[in-house]
């Protein structure tokens, strides 16, 4: 029985935009459940190390904002790991400034990474998911998708477009058995760098990557009769 089980193909999870915080935690969470994990990022120094600590995981160089890079990376994932069962789009770019401070290039870059990349990577996995009548696509969103603020003149429109794309996809793909969802992460991710910048903040102020990963994994395990499209992940100690 054990030999037969080991010969079975592992389900595949692709995490796009893997850094030391949420991306790495999400990858580890799916690896823990027996997924073969593809870790995609523009640079592979970190992802190679992470992949080495996860059985069956592999790192791929991928610029999510460039169609050719996405095509090559996902082609390699399919060849080496198989069709993708879960896609988590965690790539994001925050260009901060008011409408007079941000440039047209800043605006376009934010849109390309947050929205165009979500489209390009989703299109790589949708055909196989539709054939299987099963699959999950999770976008890691932000509160900026719901409202603009003074310094989010480039970031908020990009995140709003990403959320609208996700909703259009959900309405189209849910009837085909593909669960599309958005996790609105509201808060400061708990990293060494953010702790160093905010030494006066209590522990309850920060969003824990492992807890975000647990939420993402749970979304992908929901039953089709009670799917969630959008949920919020925020620290319990936050005043909101």
How does this structure look, described?
By secondary structure, the chain is α/β, with parallel strands linked by helices. The chain is built from eight helices and nine strands. It has helices at 2-7, 22-32, 45-52, 67-80, 104-132, 155-173, 192-197, 209-220; strands spanning 12-16, 36-41, 58-61, 86-89, 135-142, 178-185, 188-189, 206-207, 230-233. Strands 3-2-1-4-5-6-9 form a seven-stranded parallel β-sheet, sandwiched between helices. It has a two-stranded parallel sheet with strand order 7-8. β7, α7 (192-197) and β8 (206-207) form a beta-alpha-beta unit. α2 crosses α8 (209-220), α4 (67-80) runs parallel beside α5 and α5 (104-132) runs parallel beside α6. It starts with a helix and ends in a 7-residue tail after the last strand. The relative contact order is 0.13.
Task: Give me the secondary-structure topology.
Blueprint: H1 2-7, E1 12-16, H2 22-32, E2 36-41, H3 45-52, E3 58-61, H4 67-80, E4 86-89, H5 104-132, E5 135-142, H6 155-173, E6 178-185, E7 188-189, H7 192-197, E8 206-207, H8 209-220, E9 230-233
Parallel strand pairs: 1-2, 1-4, 2-3, 4-5, 5-6, 6-9, 7-8
Helix pairs in contact: 2-8, 4-5, 5-6
């Amino acid at each position: 029985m054990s030999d037969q089980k080991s010969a079975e193909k592992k389900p595949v999870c692709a995490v796009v935009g893997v850094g030391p915080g949420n991306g790495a935690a999400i990858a580890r969470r799916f690896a823990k459940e027996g997924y073969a994990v593809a870790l995609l990022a523009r640079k592979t120094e970190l992802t190679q190390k992470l992949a080495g600590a996860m059985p069956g995981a592999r790192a791929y160089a991928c610029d999510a904002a460039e169609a050719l890079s996405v095509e090559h990376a996902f082609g390699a994932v399919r060849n080496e790991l198989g069709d993708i069962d879960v896609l988590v789009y965690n790539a994001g770019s925050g260009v901060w400034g008011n409408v007079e401070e941000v440039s047209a290039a800043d605006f376009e870059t934010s849109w390309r990474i947050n929205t165009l990349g979500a489209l390009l990577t989703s299109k790589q996995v949708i055909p196989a998911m539709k054939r299987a009548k099963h699959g999950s696509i999770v976008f890691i969103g932000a509160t900026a998708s719901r409202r603009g603020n003074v310094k989010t003149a480039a970031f908020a429109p990009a995140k709003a477009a990403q959320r609208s794309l996700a909703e259009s996809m959900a309405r189209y793909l849910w009837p085909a058995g593909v669960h599309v969802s958005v996790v609105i992460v509201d808060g400061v991710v708990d990293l060494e760098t953010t702790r160093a910048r905010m030494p006066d903040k209590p522990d309850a102020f920060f969003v824990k990557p492992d807890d975000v990963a647990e939420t993402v994994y749970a979304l992908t395990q929901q039953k089709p009769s009670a799917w969630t499209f959008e949920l919020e992940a925020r620290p319990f100690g936050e005043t909101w």
